[in-house]
Amino acid sequence: GGAGLVSIAASIRFKNSYICEFDIRSVNQICSVIKKPDNMGIVTSLEDINEKIDVLFMWHVLEHIPRPLEFMHSIRKYLADDCIFFLQCPGYRPSSIVDCHYTFFNEPSMRALFASFGAKEIEIGFDLNNGFVGYLGRI
């Protein structure tokens, strides 16, 4: 979720947009400066969203989750049957080895993670300058 800028932008395109973030201080600060869109919700848990998720955007989130396979399987019930996944994670580089990163992904491990719960890959891409791997897929 971060500061909520992606959720704010998504609210322009989609019927509803949600930011899910444990610490909502940054998004509240942004929304105090620019008006929070009426169709954007701020939640601290996916359980607080009363509709299925059509697009799941996780930008530098998955590496912070200790057991990503369990996590992805646990959120499946919140996802629409044709949910699109769009995410990016750092690859295994010395600059990315920090105490808050639990996992690292490469192309085979990213593919295996999403295939494990039936996602179909659209594209795996790389930001070689920064050492990031991205995944675009759908259920």
Please give the count of helices: 4
Terminal Cα span? 22 Å
Low-confidence stretches: none
Task: Give the number of DSSP strands.
Answer: 6
DSSP helix fraction: 25-40%
Order of helices and strands: HEHEEHEHEE
> Numbering strands along the chain, what is their spatial order in the largest sheet?
3-4-6-5
The chain-level mean pLDDT equals 93
Percentage of residues in strands: 25-35%
Q: Identify the overall geometry.
A: globular
**From the helix content, strand content and strand pairing, which structural class follows?**
alpha/beta
User: What's the gyration radius in Å?
Assistant: 15 Å
State the main characteristics.
139 residues, 6 strands, 30% strand
Care to describe what's here?
By secondary structure, the chain is of the alpha/beta class. Helices cover 25% and strands 30% of the residues. The chain contains 4 helices and 6 strands, in the order H-E-H-E-E-H-E-H-E-E. The protein has helices at 5-13, 25-33, 68-75, 107-115; strands at residues 17-20, 40-43, 53-59, 79-90, 120-127, 132-138. The radius of gyration is 15 Å and the shape is globular.
Précis, in short:
It is built from four helices and six strands, in the order H-E-H-E-E-H-E-H-E-E.
Layout of strands and helices, then pairs:
Elements: H1 5-13, E1 17-20, H2 25-33, E2 40-43, E3 53-59, H3 68-75, E4 79-90, H4 107-115, E5 120-127, E6 132-138
Parallel strand pairs: 1-2, 3-4
Antiparallel strand pairs: 4-6, 5-6
